[in-house]
Amino acid sequence: MTGLPPLAVYLHVPWCVQKCPYCDFNSHALSGELPDALWLERIGDDLDEDLAHPDWSVAERPVSSIFFGGGTPSLLDPKTVGAVLEQLDDRLTLAKDVEITLEANPGTVDASRFQGLRAAGVNRLSLGVQSFSDRALKALGRIHGGAEAVQAVAAARAAGFERINLDLMHGLPGQSTAEALADIEQGIDLAGHHLSWYQLTIEPNTAFHSQPPRLPEEDTLADIETLGAARLQAAGYRRYEVSAWARDGQACGHNLNYWTFGDYLGLGPGAHGKLSAAGAAGSGLKVTRSRRTRAPRDWLQHRIGPRSITAAVEPAVLPEEFMLNALRLIDGVDEKLFQAHTGLALDTVAGPLAALRQEGLLREDRLATTALGLRFLDRVVARFLDS
């Protein structure tokens, strides 16, 4: 097992109080009671399937992080969260310092719920604040206000959470530079050590795509990016990934596993997984991707037959997949990680590496973009397809 990438677990909770108009995730407005007990049972069925896979040997591999994503995982009863964590602990090998993150909506939590989640074993929260402006939050279709976001952070700290990420967006409908920077200031005051800060984008199959709001002009967006980044740096944060800022030692371990092309189990409706196994003698790694049944109702009712679709990742695609993740990191990764996590020799990508370095888009000392390369990241990554 020591020759395989690190392993993480992702658990998907697809239900929300209401669907936000910008959201293109597999999330659905809840009608009626949350099916906690049935969700827990089906998570066990998903885990059974992965444990039984003849190639993966997941029970023997240490799990470095667990992440409850959604949707709105904070809708779950803390007892359900504790039960699923006990199930994972019983059947997998959890690292002693395993990072356990749960995404929470400030409109769905209070002091007692935070206390229950902390007692259940959650040791990191990601709060979907998005903005502290009531006007902006209303435009985004959020169910909380700015005051509730502030209260949620205070309640989480009182419950014993030391690691809290605040999720903030900018480039919001009608947002000025001053308003965006005010969100940054409040986030710095509250966040502690980690901020996710990213621009609102209009995605297909969303309400905003059907009825686009009026977004800030390009010059305003550029000012927000430049001034916001400068303020975060001055406050002691370092941009370690395209949309993530942290103080020393406070980066999100679960997301780092994705970006370094680590492995992960995907449990829950529509969840994706990536698992590596030793190939035949001399053939390197065999990388497989999986996808669970997407629709929550179908996933809950699925009792017979495979619960996911699996497909091997072809060697021709592996370089692009690796770079798509690794080059999101501002410092990139050591060159040795390419072979360790893909099973391919670095010579496989010698051509595009040399060309991109000559063009000043990649650093010479490691697999990382230059400042110019980061601006054109999609083009850089595309050069590794079928390399």
Report the sheet with the most strands, covering strand number, pairing sense and barrel closure.
9 strands, mixed
Walk across the major sheet and give the strand order: 9-10-8-7-6-5-4-1-11
**Mean pLDDT metric:** 94
Report the uncertain regions. none
* Content-based structural category: alpha/beta
Radius of gyration: 21 Å
Can you write the helix and strand succession as a string?
EEEHEHEHEHHEHEHHEEHEEEHEHHHHH
Overview of this protein structure:
Helix 1 (36-51) runs parallel beside helix 2 (78-91) and helix 6 (177-191) runs parallel beside helix 8. This protein is globular. The longest helix has 17 residues, at 218-234. The protein is 37% helix and 22% strand. It is built from 15 helices and 14 strands. The protein has 387 residues and is of the alpha/beta class.
Q: Which characteristics define this entry?
A:
alpha/beta; 15 helices; 9-stranded mixed sheet; 387 residues; 3-stranded antiparallel sheet; Arc Repressor Mutant, subunit A
Fold topology:
Blueprint lengths: L6 E7 L1 E2 L11 E2 L6 H16 L10 E9 L7 H14 L1 E12 L6 H10 L3 E7 L3 H6 L6 H13 L4 E8 L6 H15 L2 E6 L7 H4 L7 H17 L3 E4 L2 E3 L6 H7 L3 E5 L4 E7 L6 E8 L3 H6 L6 E5 L5 H9 L9 H7 L7 H9 L12 H5 L1 H6 L5
Parallel strand pairs: 1-4, 1-11, 2-3, 4-5, 5-6, 6-7, 7-8
Antiparallel strand pairs: 8-10, 9-10, 12-13, 13-14
Helix pairs in contact: 1-2, 2-3, 6-8
Describe what is shown at a glance.
This protein is 37% helix and 22% strand. By secondary structure, the protein is α/β, with parallel strands linked by helices.
